[in-house]
Amino acid sequence: MSTSLPERSLERFDEYLRRLPLRERKKLRTRRAIQDHALRLFTERGYGATTVDQICAAAEISPSTFFRYFPTKEDVVLDDEYDPILAEVFRAQPPDVSVMDALRAAFRAVFPFVYENEREPMIDRVRLMMAEPALRARMFESMRSGTLAVMVDLVSERTGLDRADMRVQAFCWAVLGVLHSAMYTWLDSDADVDLPELVDQNLKFLGDGLPLP
Fold this sequence. Notes:
Layout: H1 13-18, H2 22-45, H3 52-59, H4 63-69, H5 75-78, H6 82-91, H7 99-131, H8 133-145, H9 147-159, H10 166-188, H11 195-207
Helix pairs in contact: 2-3, 6-7, 6-9, 7-8, 7-11, 8-9, 9-10, 10-11
Keywords: DNA-binding, Transcription, Transcription regulation
Pfam family, one: TetR_C_14
Protein name: TetR family transcriptional regulator
């Protein structure tokens, strides 16, 4: 079994977007526009003082359009489109690559592009998640039904284990734990630390068995 990251070329985030059908690209642009206006208003007025109606007015959309993209106001901060892209790159890894190395390869292929192009909105979103009780409460359920569910499917597919297997569940929760650890370390450093590199280091640490002196 291979224990190192594959050297082959990986699909990048921008390449994935270019391959989307026109309708999906338009939906993605609308989604991002709503989030951009929402984050601007949250920064200017505060999260609690900003209403969905105000976001809709700024984005020039109807409330029904807003809720078609985001079920709740909290979701406009929490949701993103990265899970399907990471999943595609993960599935493209050779079958002899371990689960952890496939996961690291996916993050290393996608996350630097996202970080380079969306660093400021990412900082705003993460700081809001950490500061707002309503967002923290919603984040757990969103994570459980979103990112965790995707990761469980991927690990189950690659290992052949049932998605309900305790090993699959424990592994995926552990991955989410080290990802959150990287996020908090990044914020505590005033975002000066390179987040993609920190994520990769944390995933490697987990893959090595979390060794301590």
